[in-house]
Amino acid sequence: MRIGIAFDLKSDFEADPSGPEDALEEYDNRATVDAIAGVLTELGHTAELFGGGRRFIERMLASPPDLVFNIAEGQGSRSREAHVPAVCEMLKVPCTHSDPLTLSVTLDKAIAKRIAASLGVATPRFAVVESTADLRHLALAFPMIVKPVFEGSSIGIRRHSRVTDAAGLSREVTRIVGDYDQPALVEEFCTGPEFTVGILGEGSAARAIGVMEIVPRKARAEEFVYSLEVKRDWENEVEYHVPPRRDPAVVTGIAACALAAYRALGCRDVSRVDVRLDASGTPCFLEVNPLPGLNPRTGDLCILSARSGLPYSGLIDAIVRGALSRYGRI
Known about the structure:
CATH class of the largest domain: Alpha Beta
Structural class: alpha+beta
Strand content: 15-25%
Number of helices: 11
Number of strands: 12
Helix content: 25-40%
Shape: globular
Distance between the termini: 12 Å
CATH superfamily of the largest domain: ATP-grasp fold, B domain
Order of helices and strands: EHEHEHHHEEEHEEEHHEHEEHH
CATH topology of the largest domain: D-amino Acid Aminotransferase, Chain A, domain 1
Low-confidence stretches: none
């Protein structure tokens, strides 16, 4: 089978020197693309590099593949992650991962939380803030965390994103709105431990393949922020416990929360869902990444999957098989 890999590399874009230093953080490096292509080849497929943007469209029009393996983040608006699957839908080419609607909805953290909450999934109280003037009417409790409302890969999230007073809140909202040209998501900060859950499949057949606890080495757990600084130096900053060293009932509850959010948002094939316990021990949905990083060495999902007994090749194969099954190709 010919499989075209859709992707965006950091090297495809030129960073704005006046913009934030993490503006290109969510884009992949060539090692990730090569790793995926290598597994697809080992599985007997023909892997072709289609790239993203106009290059992707040109390749699709000239010689559409049997399947698109999509890890492209897109560029531009909050609907940027929907670009590739939308093209695939128009050209009637099967595509892995979630559809355009889900990819748009999940990139906007506030919309994703509203949908999940409407179906009974616990999530921290939050507000979308467009300027510091909006803070006068904010009815949330400290501590809080401030994030860009539609970014991934911890873009904009720093150690100091957790705030404990009005001055810190105003500072962080000003930074996010100014640096990232979008509203800020202000959320009550969960003081319990943080977890991420890997999920494969679709609908009622979706299953959690593992739960990973992110344990800080250099911060108090109740103040820990899984920030950009931490992710860039994860080997020194955190320990990953798979499975978590917690009561099995707690781990089951975390997986159930993640699965409920995954299904509520219409995710398919694969996602990584972030969950944190609140002060009372309730698992709370934070956000979902339906285009999780697939670097075999550094990707949270890949680490979680391997430590749960599913090697990298098995993870990539499961994503492909999920998509092919949906389109009736297997």
